[in-house]
Design a protein that fits this description.
The chain is an alpha/beta fold. It has 2 domains: about 1-130, Conserved hypothetical protein from pyrococcus furiosus pfu- 392566-001, ParB domain, CATH 3.90.1530.10; about 150-210, no CATH class. Helix content is about 55%, strand content about 10%. The chain is built from 10 helices and 5 strands. It has helices at about 1-15, 20-35, 65-80, 100-110, 110-115, 130-145, 150-160, 165-175, 180-190, 205-210; strands at about 50, 55, 85-90, 95-100, 120-125. The protein has a 5-stranded mixed beta sheet.
Amino acid sequence: MRVAELLLELKKEFEKMETVKEKVDMLNLIRANLADISPFEEPVDCVRWVPAEQVHANEYNPNKVASPEMKLLYTSIKLDGYTQPIVCYKKSDNEYEVVDGFHRNRVGKEYADIRERIHGYLPIVVIDKPLDERMGSTIRHNRARGTHQIRSMSDIVIELSKEGWSDKEICSKLGMELDEVIRLKQISGLKEAFQNHEFSKSWEEFERKYYGGEKL
């Protein structure tokens, strides 16, 4: 079979390469080209390895992991390997911003045994979305795992509201109920948070309910 012959030729080419960087660059090139002809359009269809120093945290992630959970994550990666890539946004040819997986990113950087094992690289997949959509992606990942913070979630909701997202869009894209969105907006204490709220009652009644001390 021609494919088998090509694979054999590839293996021979890899054997000629002397450095990890050469091999990683070739692997990434091959995977990118395979993704181009793949019937799948999922990010996970093209996992690539990039130098760990090129992967950076975002400024909005509300997800935090306590020390015991962080240690467990390290143990998991130590024993099972990286079973999930880090979801990133490509800011430039040499800079990636974490959308999901910041703590997987930390393990690969902060634990010497893991860093050595993966040769200072990190496995990533790339999504190409504007900032507000990336914020939504981060929240969805966190909420799916049940790890998010109320105060930080409130900040995110306010930011998305300022970006022009309606309550309906926030509910739909973040997997939230309308009542939850309203309560998070209340936490901010800003009337501006309700600029895109879809009112079904008069402003006077709404203002009395949410700013007049009446509890929900």
